[in-house]
Every structure is written in C-alpha cells, then in structure tokens.
Amino acid sequence: MAELQAMKCEACRGDVPKVSDDELASLLREIPDWTPVTRDGVMQLEREFKFKNFKQALAFTNRIGDIAEDEMHHPTLVTEWGKVTVTWWTHAINGLHKNDFIMAAKTDAAL
Ligand SMILES: C[C@H](O)[C@H](O)[C@H]1CNC2=NC(N)=NC(=O)C2=N1
C-alpha cells in the first residue's frame, strides 16, 4: 500500500462509509502519534505539536491550513504559545474516514 502521506483525499460526501474497527486498528499503526478521541459521539484523531514559541506554532498552523485547502479537508486547529492541537474527522459522516488518516500523515510530514 502506498504511504498514507502520499495519498489524495476523496471528496467528502455523506454516503461514504466510516472506517471499520479493523481498518481503524491498522490505520492507527501508520500514525502512531495520533490519539483517537470521541467527542459528542464523534470519533476524531488528535495530536498536540510542541514549538519553541508562538511564531513557530502559527507558521505550522498556516502550513496545515494550506494542506487542508489543497485537499479540501479541514481540521480543527487550536494555536497557543508553543503548541498546536490538530483534530481531524470527517464532518460529512460525523466520524473517521480514510481521508482523516491521510491528513494526519500529511500533518506529521509538515512538521
Ligand atoms: C464542499 C467541501 O468539499 C466539503 O464541505 C468539505 C470541506 N472540508 C471538510 N473537512 C472535513 N474535515 N470534513 C468534511 O466533511 C469536509 N467537507
């Protein structure tokens, strides 16, 4: 299988399936620094990135914003002094799609 990081996102549509439990386990092995979290019943992928200052955190935030626009798949980004929290899920299906794992891998590569 090609590396997740090199894959392109599919269009986010409401009729695409969420990842199965088996897919979830194997995809998580490819992005070991990400944690699955469930908020309001919606499973999401989350990772905190640490930086030396606010400027570096903001620059990373903007890199992720550019990748999100390229792929038309958008995260929640919380930018603080020295820290960016990135959360991916697929709004159209209220859960995780392979796109979210692709975007998590691309996020790691942008560090
Ligand atoms: C039309 C547009 O592509 C869609 O609204 C996209 C935009 N970005 C998105 N991002 C995420 N994370 N989930 C979506 O379902 C989604 N939908």
CATH superfamily: Transcriptional coactivator/pterin dehydratase
CATH level 1 name: Alpha Beta
For the report, how would you describe the main beta sheet? 4 strands, antiparallel
Bound molecules: the ligand C[C@H](O)[C@H](O)[C@H]1CNC2=NC(N)=NC(=O)C2=N1
CATH topology: Gyrase A, domain 2
Number of DSSP strands?
Answer: 4
Mean pLDDT: 96
Rg of Cα set: 13 Å
Number of domains: 1
How many helices? The count is 3
The helical percent reads 25-40%
- End-to-end separation: 23 Å
Q: What would the principal axes of the Cα set say about the shape?
A: globular
Oligomer: single chain
Q: In what range is the share of β-strand residues?
A: 15-25%
Give the ordered list of helices and strands.
HEEHEEH
Strand order of the biggest β-sheet: 1-2-4-3
SSE-based structural type: alpha+beta
CATH architecture: 2-Layer Sandwich
Q: Low-confidence spans: pLDDT under 50, at least 5 residues?
A: none
Pfam families: Pterin_4a
Enzyme class: lyase
Catalytic activity: (4aS,6R)-4a-hydroxy-L-erythro-5,6,7,8-tetrahydrobiopterin = (6R)-L-erythro-6,7-dihydrobiopterin + H2O
Keywords: Lyase
